[in-house]
Specification:
Layout (H helix, E strand, L loop, with lengths): L9 H22 L5 H9 L7 H20 L11 H17 L4 H10 L3 H25 L1
Helix pairs in contact: 2-3, 5-6
């Protein structure tokens, strides 16, 4: 494994992390809500009329921000080598995991850890360990 220094952008990565943290803080302070994507999307699908506007705005921002960024700076080319069945199965497994884990990596990792939640610490550690093991096994056996 080697590090591609052309793609190594610690300043931009740090700035992005700061913006994510600020967005999470603002959502908690102004709306009393946690910035976990699975919870935001799941709540939108539950059809609560009085709880939709902030969810739609948050998700729209996630979609619109990269489009606006791309107008100023070209986004890196993304190459997906997995098959559609593999992508669909992976998506279903992630969805099941977020349901079983009562949240996703953004909810537990960004928001839960900042609130010193023990449940979020355990969930984030499990997410990370399983991700490392899965990547290692798949790279060892299949690549």
């Amino acid at each position: 494994m080697s590090l591609n220094f052309a793609q190594f952008t610690p300043g931009l990565s740090f700035s992005g992390g700061i913006l994510i943290g600020l967005a999470a803080i603002m959502l908690v302070l102004f709306c009393g809500r946690i910035a976990g994507i699975s919870g935001i999307l799941g709540g939108l699908l539950q059809r609560k009329k009085n709880d939709r506007s902030w969810r739609v705005a948050f998700l729209a921002g996630i979609i619109i921000a990269p489009v606006l960024y791309d107008l100023l700076h070209p986004l890196p080319e993304i190459t997906v080598t997995a098959s559609w069945p593999a992508i669909i199965i992976a998506g279903l497994l992630v969805g099941m995991g977020t349901h079983i884990g009562s949240g996703c990596t953004s909810g537990h990792g960004v928001c839960g850890l900042s609130r010193l939640s023990l449940r979020s610490l355990v969930a984030t550690l499990i997410f990370m360990v399983v991700g490392f093991v899965t990547t290692t096994v798949l790279n060892y056996w299949f690549l």
